[in-house]
Design goal:
CATH class of one domain: Mainly Beta
CATH superfamily of one domain: Galactose-binding domain-like
Strand content: 25-35%
Structural class: mainly beta
Number of helices: 3
Radius of gyration: 40 Å
Number of strands: 31
Strand order of the largest sheet: 10-11-14-19-16-17-20
Helix content: under 10%
Shape: elongated
Low-confidence stretches: 116-123
Length: about 500
C-alpha cells in the first residue's frame, strides 16, 4: 500500500506519493536524508542554515546575516559588500570610502591617487635613500633660520619698555607709527599672561598698543600701525621662488584685541615696481589670543635685489583712515602698490574706543605653503641679530641692570688740549655705515684723564667709520697731553649710553 492515513490526526506516511494539487501542512515538516531542495521561490530559515553534519559544520548562515566558513571559499564572480567595497576574482579590491589600517605591507609602488600632505602618520621614517616632499612640517623642535623675521618673539627691547613717539621703536625691529591722533597711543613691551595659548607655546613677551582718547573720532588721515621691515637680500636668498605663483611664503602671528572686530594689514615691496598684498585677520573675539596665518604665493611682478636695502615691509594696522584705503581693494592678491588704496576701509570701533588695547607676538615669515611651529631662538641669538640694526652701549634695556661705571672705550688724545679720540668695535657688523646722524647719546660721561664730558660733546668721525667700527670724538675735556691714553666711561650714571642706529 502506497499511502496510509491513521486516525483523525491527518498523518500521512508514504514511501512515494504524487500530488497534482497544493499540499498544505499546518505543523512541522521534517526532512531527513534530503539530497537537494529545489525551490523557485524564497526559502526562509528561522533558525539559520547549516551545511555539513555536526560536529563538523563546514559553513553556516545565521539569522542575523553572518556567514561563517571553516574552509576555503571559492567564488567565480565579484563579491560586493554593500555599495562601497568590491572584491574581484583576480584579487583586486575597490573601495569608495575610507580605508583604515594599523599596518601596511609592500613597497607601495603601485599606489596611485594619493594627494595632499596628510596621508603619512608616523613617529619616525627610516630611509636609506633620498626622501623628497613638497613640504615638511615638524611637530616638535625647530629647524634653524626658518624665520626671516628677527625678534619675532618680542624678546629684545634695547630702547626701553615703552614709547609714545611716532616712527620709533619699543621692541626691536618693529617700528611704531601713528599720525592724526587726538592723544598719542602708547607702545609697550609687556609680559604674556601665563595660562594663555601663546604662553604655553613658549612666548613670554609681546608688543602692546594702548589707544589714547580720540575725542575727534576717526579722521580720514588718522592711523596707528606697526611695521616690520626686511632687507632685500634676505628675501632674494631665502629659497622662495617669488616670481612663481606656485611658490609660497607663509606669514603667521598671534594677536589679541580688547575690541571684537576685523583688522587689516599689507605687504609692500620696494624694488622694481612696488607691489602690495593686503590681508585681514578676520573677526577677532575680544580679549582672546588668535593665531593668524596667511599663505602668500609668488608673483611675476615681484623683485628683490640682492642688497642690504629695504626689500619688504609688512604693516599691521590698528586703524587706517579712508585717505589710504578703498572698498575696491582685493584681499589676498598681489597688485601694483597704490598709496591711496593700500587695504580695504577699516573698521573704526577699536580706534574710537578710549584705552582700547592690541597685543601681538610670535611673528614668523617662512618659505613654504604651511605655517610650521614657531622658531624659538635664544635671547642671545636674537640680540646679536638685532645688533646689526641698532646697538646701544651703556644703559641697554635689553641687558641686565647696567652699572654706574660703564667703560665704553679706550682711546687717546691726538692733539692734546681738550679733545680725545676713541674707536668702538662693532661686532656683529652693522647693516650700514653708522655716520654721525645715526648717533644718539644720553647721560653724563667722564674721561681719565680729562674729567667730565657732556653727551653733546661726543660726535662721530664720519671719515673713519665703517660697518665694523666707529670712531668718535669727545671734546670739552680738561687739559690732556698729546698721545695720552684716555678711557671713556659713565660718570656715575646708569642712564649714560651711546647708541648707533642702522635701521630702516
Amino acid at each position: 500500500m502506497g499511502v496510509q492515513i491513521n486516525g483523525d490526526t491527518g498523518n500521512i506516511s508514504a514511501t512515494k506519493a504524487d500530488y497534482s494539487g497544493n499540499v498544505t501542512i499546518g505543523g512541522t515538516l521534517t526532512y531527513e536524508d534530503v539530497t537537494n531542495i529545489d525551490s523557485v521561490g524564497l526559502v526562509t530559515a528561522r533558525e539559520g542554515i547549516e551545511v555539513g553534519a555536526r560536529p563538523g559544520v563546514a559553513a553556516s548562515i545565521s539569522v542575523d546575516g553572518n556567514m561563517i566558513v571553516s574552509g576555503v571559499t571559492t567564488i567565480g564572480g565579484n563579491i560586493k559588500v554593500g555599495t562601497g567595497v568590491t572584491l574581484s576574482p583576480d584579487g583586486d579590491m575597490f573601495a569608495t570610502g575610507v580605508c583604515t589600517a594599523t599596518s601596511f605591507a609592500g613597497d607601495g609602488s603601485a599606489l596611485t591617487g594619493i594627494g595632499g600632505t596628510d596621508f603619512i602618520h608616523s613617529e619616525q621614517i627610516n630611509n636609506s635613500g633620498i626622501v623628497t616632499a613638497q613640504s615638511f612640517v615638524p611637530t616638535v623642535g625647530q629647524f634653524s633660520h626658518r624665520n626671516l623675521i628677527i625678534n619675532g618673539a618680542m624678546q629684545i627691547a634695547q630702547r626701553g619698555t615703552s614709547t609714545s613717539s611716532n616712527a620709533t621703536y619699543c621692541v626691536d625691529r618693529f617700528m611704531c607709527l601713528f599720525s592724526g591722533t587726538d592723544e598719542s597711543p602708547t607702545f609697550s613691551h609687556v609680559d604674556v599672561s601665563s595660562g594663555t595659548t601663546p604662553y604655553t607655546s613658549g612666548f613670554r613677551k609681546a608688543l602692546k598698543i594702548t589707544n589714547g582718547n580720540q575725542t575727534g573720532g576717526a579722521g580720514t588721515s588718522d592711523y596707528i600701525a606697526v611695521d616690520v621691515r626686511l632687507e632685500a637680500q634676505d628675501l632674494a636668498n631665502s629659497g622662495w621662488n617669488y616670481v612663481s605663483s606656485s611658490s609660497f611664503i607663509t606669514y603667521s602671528f598671534w594677536v589679541k584685541s580688547s575690541v571684537a572686530q576685523n583688522f587689516y594689514g599689507y605687504f609692500k615691496t620696494s624694488d622694481g615696481t612696488s607691489q602690495q598684498y593686503p590681508f585681514e585677520t578676520g573677526a577677532l573675539t575680544a580679549d582672546t589670543w588668535t593665531k593668524i596665518t596667511k599663505t602668500i604665493p609668488g608673483n611675476s611682478n615681484l623683485q628683490f635685489d640682492n642688497n642690504n636695502e629695504q626689500g619688504l615691509m609688512i604693516r599691521f594696522a590698528a586703524f587706517r583712515g579712508t585717505d589710504k584705503t578703498s572698498s575696491s581693494v582685493t584681499l589676498n592678491a598681489w597688485g601694483a602698490y597704490n598709496s591711496n588704496a593700500r587695504m580695504p576701509d577699516n573698521t573704526s570701533t577699536w580706534y574710537t574706543t578710549n584705552d582700547a588695547t592690541l597685543e601681538m607676538t610670535g611673528f614668523q615669515l617662512e618659505v613654504g605653503p604651511v605655517a610650521t611651529p614657531f622658531e624659538h631662538r635664544s635671547f642671545h641669538d636674537d640680540l646679536q641679530r638685532c645688533f646689526r640694526y641698532y646697538r646701544q652701549f651703556g644703559a641697554n634695556n635689553a641687558l641686565p641692570t647696567p652699572q654706574s661705571y660703564n667703560r665704553f672705550a679706550i682711546g687717546y688724545s691726538p692733539t692734546g688740549g681738550s679733545s680725545a679720540r676713541f674707536v668702538i668695535q662693532l661686532d656683529p657688523p652693522m647693516r650700514t655705515n653708522p655716520l654721525n646722524a645715526n648717533l644718539t647719546t644720553g647721560g653724563d660721561f667722564n674721561t681719565q684723564p680729562g674729567n667730565s664730558a657732556s653727551s653733546s660733546a661726543i660726535t662721530v668721525d664720519d671719515n673713519s667709520c665703517n660697518v665694523n667700527s666707529m670712531t668718535i670724538f669727545c671734546d670739552g675735556l680738561s687739559s690732556v697731553s698729546t698721545g695720552d691714553a684716555i678711557s671713556l666711561h659713565a660718570d656715575g650714571d646708569t642712564t649714560s649710553f651711546i647708541a648707533i642706529n642702522a635701521d630702516f
